[in-house]
Amino acid sequence: MHGHPTRAGPDGSFATARQLVRTFSVGFDRRDVEVAVAPFSADMLWIQRVADGPWTRFEGLGEVRAMVRAMFVRHAEQRRRHLTTNLIGEANGPGHWRVRSFLTLLTLVPGGKPSLIATGTYEDDIERRGSEWLITRRLLTLDGVPVTID
After folding, report:
1. Where are the domains of the chain?
2. Which has more confidence, 62 or 148?
């Protein structure tokens, strides 16, 4: 994908919803905070859990932006690749989609082999806000023990 991904247009199709989900991954993998958070609403709610651990909440775009920045700092030596697959959308009335997808997260360390560091699922609520469609809630559930690809 070349160029700068932007928020999806006003058509309300499943293609629009898919584009929003993918924009986060592209921005994160490019280490571009503003692209990563572009699909999210100002009142965004991000809820995540790793394996059977506690649920963590990030409320509002500011907290989500800070979480993304912190991930970039924490993993500065790594390049990450989000593979978001098997997207299934459910229209929940006019102006609302729920999109579920799978996440496979790889890390690329210079001179090393790609490593699988996480798998999980996203559940995104996408709503029409004025002329834009935005992700208003993301539930991220990461599976257990990471494995390495030999």
Report:
1. 14-142
2. 62
